[in-house]
Amino acid sequence: MLKFSRNLAWLGSIAAISVFSISLLPAGTAIAQEGAAGEIEEIVVTARKRAESLLEIPESVSVITGADIDRQNIWGLEDVGFQVPNLNLSTRLDGFPNVSVRGLGAFGNTQGVGFYLDDVQLFSDASSRFGDLERIEVLKGPQGTLYGGSNIGGAIKFVSARPDPESMFGRVKGVAGDQGVLDIEGSLNLPLGQGDWAMRVFAFWANNDGYLSNPNPARLNGIAGNNDEDIGSTEESGARVSLAGPLGDNLSAYVSVRFNDFEGPNNTWIRELDENDLQHPNVVPASINPRHERDTTSGMVELTWELDGFDITSVSSWTTTESTRFTDLDQKEEYLLSLIRPEDMDVLTQEIRFTSTDEGAFQWLGGVYYSKYDEEMDSDLIWYDTVIFADGNIDGPLGCAAGLLCTGVWAGETVTEAEETGDVVMTPFEKRMRDKSHLAAFVNATYDMGEWELGVGLRADRWKNDTLRFSTNHTGSDSGTEILPRVSVTRWLSEDSMLYGTVARGFEPGGFNISEDVPDHLPAFDAEDATNFEAGWKGRLMDGRGSASVAAYFIDYNQRQIETQVPAVGAGIVELINNVGDSKQFGVEAEVSVAVSESLSVAVSAGWIEAEWDSGTSVVVGANDDGSPIMKDIGGDTPPVTPDFSWNVSADYSVPLANGMDFIASGQISHNGKYTGLRLSDPPGVSVVNPSFTLVGVQAGVAGENWQLTLNVENLTDEDYYTDVQTFPDFFFLDGDADEIIVIGTLGQPRLVTASFSYSF
What we know:
Elements (H helix, E strand, L loop, with lengths): L1 H22 L20 E2 L6 E2 L7 E5 H6 L5 H5 L5 E5 L5 E5 L11 E5 L2 E2 L11 E8 L3 H4 L6 E7 L8 E9 L3 E11 L6 E11 L25 E13 L4 E15 L4 E3 L18 E16 L3 E18 L9 E20 L5 E22 L3 E2 L5 E2 L9 E2 L8 H7 L3 E24 L3 E18 L4 E21 L2 E12 L2 E2 L11 E2 L2 E14 L4 E22 L5 E23 L4 E14 L4 E6 L5 E5 L11 E12 L5 E11 L2 E2 L12 E2 L2 E11 L3 E8 L7 E8 L11 E7 L4 E9 L1
Parallel strand pairs: 6-9
Antiparallel strand pairs: 1-2, 3-8, 4-5, 6-7, 8-9, 10-11, 10-43, 11-12, 12-13, 13-14, 14-16, 15-42, 16-17, 17-18, 18-19, 19-23, 20-21, 20-22, 23-24, 24-25, 25-26, 26-29, 27-28, 29-30, 30-31, 31-32, 32-35, 33-34, 35-36, 36-39, 37-38, 39-40, 40-43, 41-42
C-alpha cells in the first residue's frame, strides 16, 4: 500500500505539471466548423446523448473516424482496441467481447463495458460487424448516469451514417488477399421522392480461411482425423436497412433493421504447456473442429418530437439471437471431452428522453429507460467412450473398470456416428433460463457561468435478475437499486482550452452461477461498483492546426467480479463468476493530433495504468484434506487484464499526382503493455503474463475523384502475440482429478497483406 501511495503522489505531480504546461501553449482561433485548410477538423460526438464538440466534454472520449475505419479496414473488435490506449479489446474465441477500460470490466462472461449501435445497447452480438459508420466513440470510465448498469468500465458506441434526403449516392468496396480473404461491401443512399424521406442500405459478405491449422494427427488408435485444415475459417454476412423522414411538422422518425449471419471458429485455443515461455504456435490438433453459428435480427424505431425549447426522443429496440457453440474442450486429437452450447437471446429496450434545445446557459437532459434480456442456455458436456488411466495414458473402449474414468464414444467414430450408435454420454453443464431487467430514471444538467461550467447528473437504476436451472428446477432471484451520481466542473482558460474535473460512478449487476456440480442451490455473486475521479485538460493548439488532451484518474473498484473455471468432481468443469475483492487503479492518458501540413497529419496517444488488489484480498487456491479451502493473500498484486502501458502513433499523407489522382498513405504503430492473464484455475504458483507487443500497419495507394485502390499490410513485422491468455484445466490428462493446469490463448493476427478497391457514385 505504501508503494501505491507513493506512485499515486508521483502520478498526481506528473499530471499536474502536464496540465499546467500544456495550458501555457498558445491558444488557437475559434474551433473550426468546416475544417479549413491546415486546421484539424472539429469532431462532433454524442457521448452525452446530445451533439457537441469532442473538446467540450469534461471526460475522456476517443474517436475513430469513418475515414480511418475505411482506410485501415477496421472490421473487428481487435482493430478498435489497438487504436485506443488503456482500452484492451478483442473478440473472445466464443464470439463475445473481451474488454476492459482502464482495468475496469473483466474479460469473460461479465459485461463490464457497454456496446451500442445508434443508442441501442448490444447484449448478444456486440462482436458482429457494423459497417457504413460515421465514427466509433470510446467513452472511458464509468458511464452509469447516462447509460446505466453494465457500463462500469465505459461505453463503445458505433454511430452509423443516416439517410440523406438531398441526393442519391452509394459506394462499393472489395478486399482480397492472404488467408483466402475475400470481402465485399456496399452502401446506397436513396431519396424517396417528396417529403424529405430517404432510405439507406448497407450489406456485406466476408470469407477467410484464417491463420490457424488443424494438422489432423493420428490418435493413439492410429486413426487420423479428416477435419478441414483451416480450423479458423470464417464466413459472415449482414445487412442494415434504414429509413428516415418527417411524420409531421415537428415529428420525425428513424427506423433501422439489421441482420447478421456468422459461422466461424469457436474456442480454438492455442495450448501452451509452459506459462513462462509462450511459443505462439498456430496449430490446434482438435478431434473435431470447434464451430460457432450465430444469427441475429434486430430493429429499432427512433421518434423525435421537436417542441418549444426541448425535444422528446423515443428509442425502441428489439433483438433476437440464436447461437450454437461447439468446443473441443480437451483441445487434443483424442475423443475425450467436448461441450455444446445452444443459446437463444431476446432483448427489448425502451428509452424516452427529454433534451433542452434553447441557447441559454442552463442545458438539461432527462428520461426513463427499460431493458429486458431473456436468455435460454441448454448446454451439455459430451463424454466419449475412452478410458483414461491415472498416469495419463489413453486407451479405446475397454469398458468401465474400477478406478478408471469412462466417457462415451468409441474411439475412431465421428460425433455423428457416435450419436447414431448411442455411444455419447451427455451430462448437463448449463441448463438455465435468465431474465434480467433494468428500470431507470436519469437526469443530467449543465450550467454555463462564462469561464466556469458546472455539470451534475443522477440515475436511479433498479435491476433484477431471475435465474432458473431447469435441470434441477432450482431458482434464484436478486435485485437492487443503484444510485449513480456524476459531477463535473469545467474551467475555460480560453475559447479553445479548458481544465476539468469529473467524479462518476458505475456498476455491474449481480447474478447467479449455473453449476451442475452444486445441485442443491444456485451460487450467487453480488453487484460490483466503481467510482472514477478524473482531472484533465483539453484544447486546440497552433492556430487550430492541433488538438490535445491529457487526463489523470483514480478509480475505487469494489466487489470485483472475476470469471473462474475450475475442475469438478469426475473431471468435469465448473464455470463461476466470483466477487474476488476490491482494487484501486490510477493512471494517465494523453492524446495529440497535429496537421503538420496540408498533406501530412500525425496523431499520438498513450496511456499508463497501475492497479493493485487491496490489502487482505484472498482467493481460494486449493483444499486441505478435510475439505477446508486453502487461501492465498493477493493484496498488492496486479488484477488481471490490466496492461501497464500502451500507446499508438498514426500518420496520414496525401499528395496530388498527375491526371487528377492523389497518392495516399497511412501508417499506425500500436503498443500493448504486458498484463497478468485471467487465473481461471489458480493452484499455488501458477499464473501467466501476456508479454507486451507492438504492431505496425501500413496502407498505400492511389485515389481518383470517385475511386480508390490501396494495399494494406496488417502486422507488418509479423509479431507473435496473444490478444488474451489464461490458465485452464488440462482435460487431456484426465485422471479423475483434472488438476493439471495449462495456458490457453487467443493467437493474434499474423502478417496479412490485402488489396482493396472502392468506387463511389
